Structures are given as structure tokens and as C-alpha cells.
Amino acid sequence: MLRRRKPRLLLAMLLLCNGRTVSTRELTDTLWQDAPPASARANFHSYVSTLREHLGDTLLTAAHGGYRVQVATKDLDAALFAHLVAKARTAARTGRPQEAVRGFTTALNLWRGEVLETLEMTQTLRDEAAGLRELRLSAEDELMDAYLDVREPAHLVAEFRKLVRAEPYREHRWGRLMTVLHRCGRVKEALATYQELSALLDGELGVGPCEELRALHDQIFAAADTGRDTVFPQPRWQGPQPYVSVVGREQQHAELAALTMRGGLVTITGPGGCGKSALALATAQTLAARFAHGVTVIDPATAGTMAPDTLPGPGTGRHTLVVLDDCEHQPSVAALARRLLSQPGSTVLATSRAPLRISGEVTWPLGPLPTPVADEETAATRLFVQRAAQATPGFRAGVGHQALVARICRSLDGLPLAIELAATRLRVLSLPELAERLDTGLECLLAPATGVPRRYESLTSAFVWAHDRLSTNERLLLRHLAQWEGEFSLADVETTVEFHRQSGCALQLLAGLVEQSFVQSQDTPDGRRLRLLAPVRAFVAQVAAQERVGDRWAVLRAVPASTG
């Protein structure tokens, strides 16, 4: 057992940096701060020798001008704590709150006191220990979040009050206490809790509560106006969690969040595969704490099978953000949206290729990601590199790859689904091979990929449902337009497509294709310009080829067999 202070300080520093080489200079600063004695060098090596006697040469090694201690995670409480917290965070992020609660609880139970509380620490050690303590406090905060999804609010009030008193300047905790009080129907106590925090911050720091808590207060206050003290048992997030990270949509994310907070119905429209669902779920995740009863994600196709008490409705007093995902697949979705909007506390964020055509609806178009003009980095290239690294461990986009990645993204017109599918093809193709194949066509992206939701497994699955519901004339026009590369105008269509020359026909059909997001429309100095994205052209070409094969088989079946 180490009894001398300096060797214990040295060991503490090395253990706090477990697995990382700490320079000799940093270690001597830890031992003597800024005033090392003349014998510091000799003393330091003596302390290292002392540690080696206790740890052996395997655990303590010299490396690159410093020393490193490498202790297995299971044998070092600080490392085990960090590992368990990371696993619990993953569980929480992927919609497994029960597992998250167990993980955070197990991690926090490792603590028996403050970091190195029996050791007289130097400033360097205090700084290192502060990071570990902050991780502990963050784990407690996130455990509160997980509790909201798995335990009855009434059973959380006392524990949340205790956590608030332990760290009264962590505003997140006050917000969670307000939330459980509100869910218990104790609205006045929830509002009084906010006033208590406001007085504390103003008196001690001269500031007010953060924007998030002010918004929560306003939500609870609005609920109080109904005169109801209703119990709200639903969790803060109900339904599928975001399944992918959103890349390159930072500005749209912020704009959409601000628009959604105005209330009512906001519908994200755009072509299949442009990332409507991912952006909607990411936005809802950002705003969850702004709604007293969080987020409910509904697939309109299964809404009829949901328990009635899980759907916000008139008279429930619920203040909820409802996400209606993939609305174009259900003709009755407009009625569902109207029902949800009849509850004053509900805000609806929908995704659809076309507007829902409901009074008060705000449509928010979403297009592809910007593509590189030359070989520069853009949101599209960042998405490709990130997804390629996820699909193919060890993938690195070096300097020589930048031009190839840019070329691939241009071939795909920046459509996120096409970019993600292309990245998965690196499991069997090299980067140059993939770029060359995409230069000549997108056939390699039309076959199903694995490991993704069914509706995102190929370009075909992204477009086929909506394509099958186009009218015959719309499909014929789309097939003609798919033969054009680049931009065109309404006049181009009217002068080149024979059966659409009658007055108003081309305009009406094009308007339908634009509304269904098969044709992209953009206002330019030269007037309104239209175009088909490369993935849409590839899909339409595939459908046309399949129909031609079907026609040939029909002809063969109609011709009597030769009798010889």
C-alpha cells in the first residue's frame, strides 16, 4: 500500500488518465505545481520506481516522453463508470428507457464519495477530477430523463426534489421536477417551483431561468388556464426514435423548429428519400422538452390500431407535439390530422410528398442536399463519408478521394437516400468503381440494401408507391420527362409532347407531378425551371423497361404457337 503523498499523487494522475500517455512535464507539474525543487528529477524517478514495485512493468509503462497506466475497465471504477454511462446513453438514445435506467443506476452506485477525497490534491488533479464529477452529475440528469419514460410521475417527485436540492444551479433538474409535478396534476406546485428557481437565480446570479424552462413554464401556465388538474401518465417520447443522424440540415433544422413552435400543422414536403422523416424526428427530439407532454410519433397506417388514450384528442388537456410520418400512404390522414388539431394543446408536424390540404396548414418544402460544383466539401459529401465509414469499417476519405466523392454526389443530385445507398455499395465496390458505375446509371442502387427500414432499402421502394398512384397521363408524361437531363420549362413540354398540346393539359399534369415531388420546381431569373432528379430518372427508366418486357410477353402469349 502506498503511504507517501507524492507517489499517491502520481498514481492518482495516471489512473485518472488511464490508457493515455501523460508527459513527464505534466506529471512533475502535478507533483510540485510550478515550484519543483532541485531534486525533482531524481525524486520523480524514485516515485516511478515505487509505483513499479506495486504495479509491475505491465501496468505501468514508459512511452513517448511520459508514462502510461493501462488498467482493465472492469478493474478501475472511474473507467467502469464512464463505460456504463456510455452504454446507458446509447440505450436512452435508441428508445430503451428501462435499460437506460438500469445502466445509469448501476454506474451511479459505483460512487462512494467524492473523487479522491482522501487525497490532498493539486490544481492539476482537481481539474482532472472535475471532469469525472461532471460526468456523474450529467448521468444523474439523464437518469431523471429516463425515469420520465418508465415510472409513474407521483413516484418521482420526492427523488427529483432531492436531486434538485443537491445541485440547485442545474436548471435541467428543476425542469424535470416541474414536469413530474405537472403530470401529477399539481400545476400550482409546478408553477411555484419555477418561481422558486427564478428567485434563486436572480438573487444569487442576477439572471433568469434559461429559455427552455421559460418555454416549459408557459406550456404549464397555458394548461392551468383550462382549470384542470388532470393526470398525464404518458411518457415524454412515445413512438420510434430517430434512426439516423441528420447531416447537413443544420439551418433547416433550426428554421423548422422555430416554425413548429408556432403551433398548428406544419407539413414537410419533398421527394422520396430527401430526408423528411429523419428531419422531422430530429426536430421533434430537439423540441420534446418544450412540450409538457412531450412527443408522440404516429404512423398514419397504424393509427387505427393504437389505444384511444395514447392519441391526443379533444378535452384531454394534453400539450403534445405529434409527428405524423409518411402521410401520403393513407387517404384518411387528413381526418386524423383534423382530430389532433382540434385539441388546442397539440402541434402537428407531418411528412408527406404532397400537402395534406387542411385549413391552416403550413407547407415546408425540403429538397436534396447541395452538391459540390468542383471538388469542395459540401453537406452531400460529408453525408457520404459518414455513411461510408459506418457501412465499411476502416473507410477513410483521403485527399485523393475528395474528387471521387464529389463526383458520386453530383451523379446522385444530392438526394440523401441515394447517397446513403451508394455508401453501402462500398462493401463490394472500390470508390473509383462506384464512381464509374454511377456515371453510366444508377442501376446498382435500385436493388434492395440490408439493415435499413423497408421503405428506405432501395430507390425503387422510395418511389414505387407514389408512382403507382399517378394517373395514366401523369405516368406517360413522367416517362417522357425522364429522358431529359437538365432543366426544362412548361413551354418545352408543350412544344415537344404531342398529346399534351391541348390547352391547359400540360400545365395540369405538370402541376400534379410537382405536387407529388416527382418534378422539382425552382424560380430563376429566366423564369420557372423544372427538372427531374437523377434518382427519379433512373427509377422511371427501370419502370419503363419492365413495362416493355411485360408488353413483349403479352404479345408472345397472344400469338398462336406454330404447328410446324
TrEMBL record:
Domain Bacterial transcriptional activator: 76-221
GO molecular function, one term: DNA binding
Keywords: DNA-binding, Signal, Transcription, Transcription regulation, Two-component regulatory system
Domain OmpR/PhoB-type: start-end pairs: 4-69
Stored InterPro entries: AfsR-DnrI-RedD_regulator, BTAD, HTH_77, OmpR/PhoB-type_DNA-bd, P-loop_NTPase, Sig_transdc_resp-reg_C-effctor, TPR-like_helical_dom_sf, WH-like_DNA-bd_sf
Domain of life per record: Bacteria
Protein's GO biological process: phosphorelay signal transduction system; regulation of DNA-templated transcription
CDD domains: BTAD (cd15831)
Family the UniProt entry places it in: Belongs to the AfsR/DnrI/RedD regulatory family.
Name of the featured protein: OmpR/PhoB-type domain-containing protein
Organism: Streptomyces caeruleatus
Taxonomic classification: Bacteria, Bacillati, Actinomycetota, Actinomycetes, Kitasatosporales
